[in-house]
Amino acid sequence: MKIGSSNDSNAVKAQYSTSNRLNTRISFHDKCSTNKQGFGNWILSNYNFREGMKVLELGCGTGDTWRGHEDIIEKCEKLVLTDLSEGMLETVKENLGERENVEYRIEDIQNLSFADESFDVVIANMMLYHVPDMNKGIAEVRRVLKKGGTFYSATFGENNFPEKLAEWFEMDGESFHPNHLFTLQNGTEKLESSFEEIRTEVYPDSLHITDMEDLVEYLKSLATFKSVMDLPVERIRSILNSHVVDGAIDLPKEYGLFICK
Question: How far is Cα 179 from Cα 158, in angstroms, rounded to an integer?
């Protein structure tokens, strides 16, 4: 199945129709990541919010990044949290509650309903690689962003732990289609058509896994590793255990953030 096909779009929608699988992945990273600052907290530390800003987040997921950061939310004159998934937005509302300056909306980055130059800040983290027409999506972000505004977009790199796991399970081109449509390596090129100033910040991190069941549950949450989940569980455990060193598996993580003006 090729990334970007209609079937793949349907798989993405199914994967994010509720927050269950995303919560599994968030919990895994919280438990096993060696950088205990947390990716979400690190992303927030890179935001430059001033009092009275209007902020739009596209593909907000569970909204977990915002929890515990009342000071940043309160700085915003308006914070609009959007997602394509109604189920995901319900989770965000549960996590953050009703607030006078926060609005929840279903939006498609490729066809935003907002007027030109509506926001001081636009955020699209870990989602541009899912957008069927990425160029249109990025152009829409630029359209709704005020002159002098900032666009933040987090993503992963191409030298990451899924690639290493695929190597271990001997997944070839027929069974492993990593989504490299928008990565730390090629993201600048994708963004240059709409933004003049693009800076890349890299988050230093790795995975240290001591409970193999955590890794098995994580793999189950990923559509990319469906063929692995079709293997007998004992075979999966055997392959993972063959890479245990001193009671743990260590895997690379390559994540970062584009900051665009």
Answer: 9
